[in-house]
Design goal:
This protein has eleven helices and 14 strands. By secondary structure, it is of the alpha+beta class. The chain folds into three domains: 79 residues, no CATH class; 151 residues, Beta-Lactamase (2-Layer Sandwich), CATH 3.30.450; 150 residues, Reverse transcriptase/Diguanylate cyclase domain (Alpha-Beta Plaits). Helix 2 runs antiparallel to helix 3, helix 3 packs parallel to helix 6 and helix 8 crosses helix 9. The longest helix is centred in the middle third of the chain and has 32 residues.
Amino acid sequence: GDRFWGLETGADYYITKDSEPQRILELVKNILSADTVRPWAGTAAAKTTGVDILSRVNDLLDRKLYEATILSEIGRVARSLVQFDESFTSVMSLVARVVDFTVGAMAFVEQDDVDVELMLNRRAAPSVVDEAKARLLEAVVAARAGVPLGRVRARLFAPPGSGLSVEETALDGFASFPVETNGRLSGMLVVTGRAAGKMTPETRTFLGQIANQAHIVMENSRLFERVRNLAIRDSLTDLFNHRHIMDLVHHEFERVGRYQNAFSVLMIDLDHFKGINDQHGHPAGDAVLREMAHLLRDQLRATDSLGRYGGEEFVAVLPHTGAEEARQTAERMRYQVQQRRFHAGESEVRLSVSVGMATCPAPGVGSSEALVREADKALYRAKEAGRNRVAS
């Protein structure tokens, strides 16, 4: 029946624990040793019966099965999801099954720096989100015995119920659950809203358990993403590295072959960049490359990708983009670079870029490598024509 639905989702985690069966036996002994069962409000005391004992035990089992199911689901998140964003939203959705929060958040503390991830379970005014974040940071500082924080980075995930018409305009309740690792504060789970202010001691205890298990899951996900980024990111610019951006080109080329959607590749090269290194030094040149990478990335859509091809050359991958739209993007990049004053050490310098573009599908382009070669040939033509221009 419904009482045992949790077994289908891993509640045997509870049944097989050594300590919990003993707790049930102790409960039964306590009930049997009493002459009466504590009456419900408005009822007279009654003699203890077998039905009373079963009811009390079933209530305890119900709660424990439910708690074990939630913890088991968090374990499944750890085993099935590795992307941080997916893991976080899944964990917070499980928290919402325990307490119907308005703003839920997890903080991750590394030395003096804090990363805060927030999620809305229901619509709330921006002031409510801001207050929740401020209260969380206050709780973190308090848990650190007043030691101030360094860098604070926060992200807000879009609410699953963004279509709801009711919007909360005040922070009605706040509850925090610190997580310690080796005696030091390493994280915190926070829930806000009316339900957060009315939790029973049992619910608070359970959320403390969730906080500890969820923190382990999320830290593992954060570690995975860091390791993955080391493998796919260029250490200087934080753009995708050569291998990964070429993998993305290949992936898009294969997708075009299946669905016949256009996509374009841009090869972008800094004009006369060698002069920057010669005149201002390589550290200044590196600073210019980082600034250039950020500027180019800002000209792209969220669905586009940008990578460092090598040296002062970059590659942009533009899915679902035909030749005309790709040219507009390339011209926007070229114009923004031309207008910018870049910082080269203590000096400001002006730069330009040449851009070669190629669009797929196209006659004679039978592979992703061939498409990149076409873009590279177009870049060469832009250079030969005088630089600071776009060619196809």
